[in-house]
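fold-stage: in
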Amino acid sequence: MILSIGFLPRALKQKDPAIIQQFESKYEPIGLPALIIQVLTGLWLGIFYDSQPMGWFTFRGSLAIHLALKVILVVLTLILAIHARFRILPKLKPENLKTLAFHIIAVTLIGVMLLILGVSIRTGGLF
């Protein structure tokens, strides 16, 4: 969210990919381990709630729907992060800054959806 609100608008306005690259170089050593920890603890917590992970994808019942959606959203986040890290960032130029902006905004929106789903599991759910 900090990247999408604080740095991305300035980078797009100035058409300067260095703004994103500087943020990424400082954040990556913290962000990637945090994402791995989030995935592992999320799986552990999901198994705590429902010990049958394959049952999550039956979409039967509120808990299964929540857990399946969270797994799907985390996988989408990982796909976008890997694609950005290995395909976009190494070749980042003003011309493809909008492609990276799409990734940044998508990951931010997915993060907000994950937050909402996580809170809804604890508060009785959306479904």
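fold-stage: in (second)
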Amino acid sequence: MMVFIFGLIIGSFLNCAIWRLYKSETMGGRSYCPKCRQTINWYDNIPVLSFIFLGGRCRHCHQPISWQYPLVELSTAVLFLATYTIASLAPAFPYLLARDWLLVSTFIIVFVYDWRWQLIPVNIVWPIGLLIFVLNLLIGLVWWQILIYGAAGAIFFLLQYLITKKKGIGEGDIWLGGLLGLAFPSVGQLLLILVISYCLGSIVSLSLLARQKKGWKSRIALGPFLVIGAIITLIWGSQIIAWYLGLF
């Protein structure tokens, strides 16, 4: 229960971080309503509960509060609990848990940011990549292997970026690919992330086209699908890969 509550608190912070990154504001200072900019009292800033008690509206301006806020808080809590359960069984528990919670937090920021504004906050991806590298070393992974896979992840998306003449994917996807390589230095895991993300992306794109929500030339952010693939791989990757190899 404490892990779940901690995840809710971190999720609330991530919501604040996403908005302030987009507005290029500092992380310090009290939370405020993005519509009327009134300071939010502590009792209106309790994860999930405040959203329910306020009926999904700001106490001051009565404008609707985005569903992003409770969904991010709940998603963070659930994913923190899931990764805690898995990491608690590993010998390098503290470092593995720190890495996985850092990855979950970063993935949630990237997902929301890229989904809403079709941008990947590379100023977050760069330092997180360095921290993930260090934590993977503490877990016991080999430094040159981590770097090779990090470079491979970035090069894979760089080639797509160049082949499509900057139209297929954005520059931020290249850096996200590098982060994924540093976080998952394994051929099987990286391939699983790509298969899941591109399959999901294709399904969603075709669905939007069929419903005439998007045109053939419309851009659909790749980052959210890479994040979903990465989270699935982080939690169930070993089981999925073992199941697949067992088919042969």
